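INFO batch 0412 | record 1 of 1 | parsing
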Amino acid sequence: MTVRNSGVRQPSIWASVVSNDAPMLREWLLALGFTEDLMIPGERSNSIHHCQLDWPDGGRVVLSSTDERRTPCRPGTNSLHVVATDPDAVMERALLIHATVVNPIVVQTDYPSREFTVEDPDGNYWTFATFAG
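INFO prediction complete | emitting tokens
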């Protein structure tokens, strides 16, 4: 087993996502702009035990195959907020991979954010927004 690690430390909270097809979801997230920090293959062929994906503006998502470890998490039950300095560029990449757009790009009026939401292949919602709190 080959373990790849970028050596970049992310001290913030990491969202954990499980998938019935984690390799496919990994590719989907990479196409949106995440970068891979660490990849540990699963016990079975075409599975992921643990994969760390970093967002260029900061933060990390942990991805694993559904049956790789005991977890109460289920595919399609997450809603994640990703701070993006350029949500329009992320939206362009999302459209290139035919992501399902849940909410198109909008400028919020009650808080300062330009954002959109897409649904990943497992049914999780990913909001990419300029709002960072």
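INFO post-check: Residues 23 and 46 are 7 Å apart (CA to CA).
INFO record closed
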